[in-house]
Design goal:
Elements (H helix, E strand, L loop, with lengths): L2 H18 L4 H14 L5 H5 L5 H18 L2 H13 L3 H19 L1 H18 L8 H11 L8 H12 L11 H22 L15 H8 L6 E6 L10 H6 L6 E6 L16 E5 L2 H10 L2 E3 L7 H6 L4 E7 L22 E8 L2 E2 L11 E7 H6 L7 E2 L3 H8 L6 H17 L4 H14 L5 H7 L2 H20 L1 H13 L4 H15 L5 H19 L3 H13 L9 H5 L10 H19 L1 H4 L3
Antiparallel strand pairs: 1-3, 1-4, 2-3, 5-8, 5-9, 6-7, 6-8
């Protein structure tokens, strides 16, 4: 069997296994790379060269920058701004939502943009009394269109630029994609505005992402920290000076409960003893608080701004976590009290409840009891041991939804601006620009090393790295040339427009059943050789493939983001093509009539 037919057999096996969807995607891709070595088509170095390709490194760096924007609260801020600006108008809501997700996906990739805005859009739909199914599919399709606004929008864009440069076409500029991407986004918005209500179902899923944007207020009310709070100055000579937290927290004075104490400047402190000038925060009846103030030489703080305590407990630096004592927890039988600092020294117990009723300070903990803890976001992420407590709502998820422009937001935005500047000016290769931005995010402490590892979508990275050798094999064995000659022979004298039509249809159909990145890696070498054989520029041909791969509108399995909204939007398999087909036709029209004008044959 000739090497060409071995390559065709490997491609066919990849497509079948992707459609069958019983094996892990990365297993199929790595198997394809190794099969090219096992059959002698490529050397081992060639079979594994994709993992060190600069395009793969750049794609991985983009995932890190995207995670940095989300963790720093930039996407939460943008989502809240979107809710404020949308109002009650459906048209304004659609235009702003799709326009914003398009720009965001161009900066941080489709997956990052949709993951960041999915809970925001669900909350927005519920608050405005609209069905989430009317908004979530437009959100995803707007992200697909927006991926064509800038180089950073999709791994396919990176692959197309690299192929263009290798073919002598000179590549595409960072913002050059917007010449075709902007009309695509505008057309998709117009289709949703005009026909979306009729083409989309009106359903509400039983499993929607939680709305944690106001969760801090809910916790304050649940644990009765939103009212009847008093701050008392510890004056000179007070018998409380030198007393420990435990002594204060376990003392029983009617219905008064010790919450925590602060220093003279009003900042929460975690030292164990009370000093002169400190502020005691108590909860309970006013008359009992006044009696304690007289007895212990304390003074009420009068100049308390409204919401000050809430802002100090929940802000960009620190937050709250509600935890449940599970069965067999080592904490069962331990005695906790409000104001207590945990053993790690960086979490404060604000309140304890048993079946919704305040627990008497010092009572032994039992399975099912709940605690409200306060601490830095980092401490809440790292100190809550699953063997001891169960976290009711993830602090990390709460921070991402409820704390806009948190710590590190300026640093991440500066890193993003630097990356965009370097990519737009071409001062350094894309991989270097991406690594510099990702390095800033890591070194500044916005993400830890572990968070960097978790932020990278390794399926995408391995897929691209493992499939790149297939493109090399197609070119090296002549498989790409044979397919290109066949395609050119079918087109015959019909000219380059017929070539664009054939490539668009082939890419768009294949991209509905397997990854658009995998589709691009298969189609790109064929399109380059076909263009060269017809004696035309590779630029319009490659852009045609790029647009077709972005048009993953017809099935839920076309991309991970299409699947991401399927359950919260209560969509069925057949819902996608109804809205997606008009958008795909619009993309085809632009490819045939606009792309050759911008990038002539």
């Amino acid at each position: 069997m000739s090497e060409i037919w071995i390559v065709f057999g490997i491609i066919a096996a990849i497509i079948v296994l992707f459609i069958w969807d019983r094996l892990p995607v990365i297993g199929v891709c790595v198997g394809a790379a190794l099969s090219l070595w096992a059959t002698g088509i490529l050397t081992l170095n060639q079979s594994l060269a994709g993992f060190g390709d600069p395009a793969v490194i750049f794609i991985a760096a983009l995932f890190v920058v995207s995670a940095g924007l989300e963790v720093a609260g930039v996407t939460a801020w943008a989502g809240q701004l979107l809710i404020r600006q949308a109002g009650d108008s459906r048209i304004r809501l659609i235009v702003l939502m799709m326009g914003f997700v398009g720009i965001l996906s161009a900066l941080i990739s489709v997956n990052g943009a949709v993951a960041a805005l999915l809970p925001v859009v669900v909350v927005m739909a519920i608050r405005l009394g609209r069905s989430p199914s009317q908004l979530l599919m437009p959100l995803v399709f707007g992200a697909h269109g927006g991926s064509l606004l800038m180089l950073t929008g999709s791994p396919v864009n990176v692959l197309v630029v690299e192929a263009s440069a290798d073919a002598g076409g000179g590549g595409f500029g960072y913002f050059e994609f917007a010449l075709i991407g902007a009309p695509i986004v505008l057309g998709c918005i117009g289709i949703v505005v005009l026909f979306g209500e009729r083409l989309l179902p009106s359903r509400t899923s039983r499993s929607l992402p939680p709305d944690l944007s106001r969760h801090a207020t809910t916790l304050f009310e649940q644990y009765r920290l939103s009212g009847d709070l008093y701050q008392l100055h510890v004056r000179a000579g007070s018998p409380l000076i030198g007393k420990t937290r435990e002594a204060i927290g376990l003392a029983r004075r009617g219905d008064l409960t010790f919450v925590t104490f602060k220093d003279a400047r009003g900042h929460l402190i975690r030292r164990d003893t009370i000093g002169e000038g400190d502020l005691l925060v108590l909860r309970g009846p006013a008359d009992q608080a006044a009696e304690v103030a007289r007895e212990f030489n304390l003074a009420f703080r009068e100049d308390v701004p409204e919401g000050e305590i809430a802002d100090q407990l929940f802000n960009r630096d620190s937050g709250l976590a509600e935890v449940l004592i599970p069965p067999r927890s080592p904490l069962i039988g331990e005695r906790f009290f409000p104001g207590m600092v945990t053993e790690s020294g960086d979490l404060i117990v604000l309140a304890l409840q048993r079946q919704g009723v305040d627990l008497t300070p010092g009572d032994a903990l039992a399975a099912g009891d709940t605690m409200l803890l306060q601490g830095t976001w980092k401490a809440l992420d790292t100190r809550l041991d699953q063997a001891e407590v169960l976290v009711v709502n993830s602090p990390d998820l709460m921070r991402r939804q409820a704390v806009p422009m948190g710590r590190g937001a300026g640093t991440v935005l500066a890193a993003l601006a630097l990356m965009v500047f370097l990519l737009a000016t071409g001062l350094v290769p894309p991989a270097v620009a991406g690594l510099l931005a990702a390095g800033i995010v890591l070194i500044s402490g916005v993400l830890s090393v572990e968070q960097v590892y978790r932020s990278i979508n390794w399926t995408t990275v391995i897929l691209v790295g493992a499939m790149m050798p297939l493109s090399t094999a197609m070119e090296q064995t002549g498989a790409a040339r044979l397919l290109a000659e066949t395609l050119v022979g079918i087109v015959g004298d019909a000219g380059p427009y017929a070539l664009l039509t054939g490539l668009f249809v082939f890419s768009a159909v294949l991209g509905q059943v397997i990854s658009n990145t995998a589709t691009a890696l298969i189609i790109i070498p064929i399109s380059v050789v076909a263009a060269q054989q017809m004696g035309i520029s590779t630029q319009p041909v490659l852009m045609c493939v790029c647009v077709a791969c972005a048009g993953a509108f017809l099935t839920p399995v076309a991309t991970a983001t299409n699947l991401m909204v399927m359950e919260p939007g209560a969509y069925r398999f057949g819902d996608y093509w109804k809205l997606g087909l008009p958008m795909l036709i619009w993309c085809f029209i632009l490819v045939i009539f606009v792309v050759p004008i911008i990038w002539p044959f």
